[in-house]
Amino acid sequence: MPIQVSIPTPLRGLTSNQDTVEGSGATVSEVIQNLEKAFPGIGERLVDEQGNLRRFVNIYVNGEDVRFLDDKNTAIKDNDEVSIVPAIAGG
Fold this sequence. Notes:
Layout (H helix, E strand, L loop, with lengths): L2 E4 L13 E4 L4 H11 L3 H5 L10 E5 L2 E2 L15 E6 L5
Parallel strand pairs: 1-5
Antiparallel strand pairs: 1-2, 3-4, 3-5
């Protein structure tokens, strides 16, 4: 099931500078696992050692923050758009 995954600038070095890549999986967790297979090193930037989404990374499915849905278990359907957005802090 192909989906489009938007890659933020800080991670594009892992995707040969592609800003959008094709992904697959039935859940956000599976999408991340498949991205890791295609682009080694990206997974550790998105999830911690326990497999939880890192606090400074936001993932959106069709514009909805997965933390307000079913987190890494959020279901993915054909043609969904997944966006990876680094958290921005400042003061």
